[in-house]
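Limitations

Structures in this collection are predictions, not experimental determinations, and the ligand pose is part of the prediction. Treat each record accordingly. The example that follows, with magnesium ion as the small molecule, is included so readers can see exactly what is and is not provided: the inputs are given verbatim, and the output is the predicted complex.
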Amino acid sequence: LFAGPIEFVKGVVSMSGLPPADRLEVCFAGRSNVGKSSLINALTGRKNLARASNTPGRTQEINYFALGESRHLVDLPGYGYAEAPVAIVAKWQALLKQFLQGRATLRRAFVLIDTRHGVKAVDEEILTLLDKSAVTFQVVMTKADKVNRETREANIAQVMGALARHPAAYPEIIVTSSEKGEGIETLRAIIATLE
Ligand code: GTP
Ligand code: MG
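Predicted complex:
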C-alpha cells in the first residue's frame, strides 16, 4: 500500500525544526494516553516504531515518521495531561496551535477520542482550534476493544453530537482498536487515498 521505507525521521520541539515540507502529511492529535503512538504502530505494522507507554505525556515532541516515499505520519504531543507543569503545557499548546494552523503540507488531522470517554472539554478546545484552521479534521475513536456494545454506541452518539457543533469536521468517524486491529485497514486506506 505504501511503497518505500517506514521509519522514524525526527522529533522536533519547534516549528523551525520541522522537516522540509515536501510530503503529504497526516497528524494524530489527542489527549495524553488516548493511543496515538499505538495507532501509528498498528497502521504501520511496526510494533515499536512510535513509543507507546502507560505513562501519560510520553510523547513530548512532534515525532515524524516516513510512510513510504511520499507521506509523513506525525505523532503530536498529547494534551490534557493533569500532572504536567503549567509552563510545559503552555509550550505544548503554543506548538500544537502553530502546527495545526500553519503546516502547509498537513492534509488531515486525526483527532483521537477514547471510546470509553467520548469528547471531553480538552478535546473541544482542539476541535475549536481546528475549526479555525484550513486542515480537514476527522475523529478516530480508540481502544474500542475496552468497551461493551452499549457504551460504544452511547459514546459514538456523544461524539457525533459534539461534531454537529463543528461543521468543518469530516462527517465520518472511524472506530478503531490498535490492540485488535479494528478499523486499522479503513484508516490506512484513507491515508493512502489522500492527495
Ligand atoms: P502520549 O504519548 O502520552 O500522549 O500517549 P499516546 O496517546 O501516544 O498513547 P499510547 O499509544 O502510548 O497508549 C497509551 C496506553 O494505552 C498504552 O498502555 C497502550 O498499550 C494502550 N492502548 C493504546 N491503544 C489501545 C487499544 O486499542 N486497546 C487497548 N486495550 N489498549 C490500548
Ligand atoms: Mg505517544
